[in-house]
Structure formats: structure tokens, C-alpha cells
Please model this.
Amino acid sequence: RKEVEQDPGPFNVPEGATVAFNCTYSNSASQSFFWYRQDCRKEPKLLMSVYSSGNEDGRFTAQLNRASQYISLLIRDSKLSDSATYLCVVSLRYPGTYKYIFGTGTRLKVLA
Amino acid sequence: NAGVTQTPKFRVLKTGQSMTLLCAQDMNHEYMYWYRQDPGMGLRLIHYSVGEGTTAKGEVPDGYNVSRLKKQNFLLGLESAAPSQTSVYFCASSSSGGEEPQHFGDGTRLSIL
Model:
């Protein structure tokens, strides 16, 4: 089982739609959680950190479920500019350091 | 507001040639990382550093070396390039080891012929 798993998609949604992605992680000792977006042939850019109580940033809402070991990202009122790949990232503590484990990403296409 | 800067942006090498990729960050971050990203695969960690003068192996370190002589710079070297090292390379930095997010440079596209 992969340490971090995401549905690769693509998710094709019309403008204005609400779309949700899930990401599961295998290690219950995972410390911190993040969502990044990556545009084609560009670097990953931080979208938001995910906090235990859930958090919202404009049209984006992130949730963490430690019991079931998954995080989610909800995008409301989708825009064409939201089309990208969304990466789930989990940090894990190792002796002397932490490691960031990346999912392979979920592709979103918002259609006009 | 530069953040993380990578040079060069693109490079084509012949098999067996060597080169060094430079990563510079101006955020005073302790931790720095080198990743490679290949089609259909997630980011894979090559090497990382937890502070000036320190380096450690990541998931796919073979064929690469790194140095962190100054806190703001992290160099990735290919001593004898191989076609399997054709990839997009990303450098990242973070202020702490796992509680804070990473910040990425805009990548180096490397082709080995």
C-alpha cells in the first residue's frame, strides 16, 4: 500500500460546480498535512495547510480525519483557473528529521 | 521576493557529462531538499539537508551528490549523467522539518541524451 494515495482523476466539472478530493495516508503517526496545486510543467505551490479542526480559505475547505486517516479538499464555485493537479502531502517524523510524503496528485479540469 | 531560485531552468547533457544544479533560498530556512518528478510518479526525494554543512540521502540518491556549504545554497551534482536521470528537478526549503510547508523553486528541466 502506498504511503499516500490519491485518485488520479481527471475530475471534469463544469464552472461553478463543487468538487471534492480525498487523500488517504497509511501511517497513523503522520504529523502535518498540506494541499498543493501544480500546474502543468510548473512547481508545486502551497494551497493550504490542513488543521485538525478543519480550515477554510475562500472557496477552499480542507478537512482532516485522523481516525480514518484521510484528508479532503473541497472546492466550491469552481473556476476555469482551478484546473490543475492537486497534491496531497503528509509529513512524518523520522529519527533526527521529518519527511514529506507526496501523493501522485488528482487532476482537475474545470470546463466552460 | 525571490523565495527559492533554481539555476539553470533547462539543460541538455550527453551521457557521461557532469553538471551542478544550484538552489538558493532567501528565507533563512534551515531545511532544504532536492526532488525529481517523472511522468505518472509523485515527487521523489533525492537528498536533503537539515542545516548548513549537513546532507542526507533520500529515497533515490544513487547517481547524485549534494553539498550545503552555505545555509542559503544547496547544490545537486550529477557526476556522470545517465539517460535515466532525465527528469524535472525541484528544490524546496522549509523553516522546520515537518510542521511547516515546503516552498518550491520553479524547477530545472534536464534531458540526458
Observations:
- Chain B has no helices and eleven strands.
- Chain B has a mean pLDDT of 94.
- The two ends of chain B are 35 Å apart (CA to CA).
- Chain B touches chain A at residues 33, 40-43, 45, 48, 50, 56, 88, 90, 96-107, 109 (CB under 8 Å).
